[in-house]
Amino acid sequence: MYDTHELTRRLQKNNGSKIVMVVSDGLGGLPQEPGGKTELETAKTPNLDALVPRGNLGLSVPVLPGIAPGSGPGHLGLFGYDPLKYQIGRGVLEALGIDFELGPNDVAIRGNFCTLDAAGNISDRRAGRIASDIGAKLCEKLDKITIPGVEVFVRPVKEYRLVIVFRGAGLSGDIDDTDPQATGVPPLQAVARSAGSAKTAEICNAFLAKAREILKDDAPANFLTMRGIDTLPQIPTFEEVYGLRAGAIAVYPMYRGLARLVSMKVLDAGQTLDDQMARLEADWNNYDFFFIHWKYTDSTGEDGNFAAKVQRTEELDAAIPSIMALKPDVLIVTGDHSTPSKLMSHSWHPVPTLLSADTCRFDPPAKFGEASCRAGGLGQFEAKYLMLMALAHAGRLEKYGA
After folding, report:
1. What is the pLDDT of residues 314-353, one digit of tens each?
2. What letter would DSSP give residue 125?
3. Cβ-contact 114, 183 below 8 angstroms
């Protein structure tokens, strides 16, 4: 298959135009009952709706039809990196997101503090979403673990999330997660998927055994699971493949890590949407492309809270005028995947997408939602092609061929 990055390297041009990509994490949803509305369709979104006749709607497929993606593959697709080619473990993204400098002999792991009941089964996969200061104190305990032959680093991320890094020769990340993705069952053992990863799996299990003893009296966070075990990959930079100076305005560490992975400049922006909008305005003249991440449409969907996801969608809508006041040449509003509150998890459903630019064959007025996106001018497309459309509408691609 032809590498589209080779094409964009050849065709890119700098005309001073600005592109803003707003990623509302887990944006897509489902109706609660037949004939009902999704969370996005239920939300009052006058500002997004006003953009529909100034652009095109469509549905993006993050990876492949029927595949429910993690946030890593979902975002890489939106950034134009084929998520089947660039498979990156969440541990790497979390480590980069907290500015941990990964080296060639490092294996990075995303950890989740969890709650075990008296029988040793998981009763809460996120330990009640403990406060970040509690998680940081637990990480201090775990950072004292020693394992022969490797250096061990344990760092807090946010709430119940942590990063574990093993540093040593001969390590590999080809290992299954220990999170069973269910409650009422025990955590899994780390199992190598290939012979070259057997040593690292043994190290993971040794660490978990020591962690279990250390955390046994720290309910609700009396154990942890491991996810996204991986090493740092080689990946071309955003500016190299698109000719864009890119700034990332994201609060959660993982999404900052995704931005750093493709060499976007991570811009600190406090904790609120108002903070993010202020940073966007302050840096408007310094970058060509802005990635803005909004987490809470995903977390409310995972909590199964339909009403809260509607509210979070409305909060995002209220920020749209601040972006439009800066007059971007292209504004994209989409998600990295769908997280229907009905399912309480990431799903395979295509994601509502809005692209607003003066160069669109404009869609008729409609409410921004799944039903209207099915009928929109963008159609249903693979997310990895969204950047090509953004570049085209921004006038940043030369003609291909004679």
Report:
1. 999 999 999 999 999 999 999 999 999 999 999 999 999 9
2. T
3. no
Q: Supply the DSSP symbol for 397.
A: B
Beta-strand pair 289-294/223-230:
unpaired
Domain 4-86+235-393 coded CATH 3.40.50.1820: no
Residue 371 region by backbone torsions, left for phi larger than 0, else alpha for psi between -120 and 50, else beta: alpha
165-209 pLDDT, tens digit each: 999 999 998 899 999 999 999 999 999 999 889 999 999 999 999
CA angle 82, 13, 24 (to 5 degrees): 45
Which residues on adjacent β-strands are paired with residue 106? 167
Helices 253-261, 90-97: axis angle to 10 degrees equals 100
List, in order, residues 6 or more apart from 296 with CB less than 8 Å away. Answer: 25, 312, 315
Instruction: For residue 293, give the amino acid letter.
Output: H
Pair of tokens at residue 332: 């994209």
The contacts of residue 60 (CB under 8 Å, 6+ apart) are 77, 78, 334, 350, 351, 353, 380, 381, 382, 383, 386
In degrees, to the nearest 5, what angle opens at C-alpha 80 toward C-alphas 38 and 157? Answer: 70
Q: Tell me the two tokens of residue 402.
A: 């004679």
pTM of the model: 0.85
Rounded-to-integer distance, Cα 363 and Cα 375, Å: 9
Is the distance from CB of 117 to CB of 123 less than 8 angstroms?
yes
CA dist 247 → 164, 242, 267 (Å): 27, 13, 6
Element housing 59 (H / E): strand 55-61
DSSP letter at 286? Answer: G
Q: Determine phi and psi for 338, rounding to 5 degrees.
A: -100, 140
Which neighbouring-strand residues pair with 249?
292
Q: Where are the domains of the chain?
A: 4-86+235-393, 93-230
> Which contiguous run of DSSP H or E holds residue 255?
helix 253-261
Q: Are 158 and 252 in contact (CB under 8 A)?
A: yes
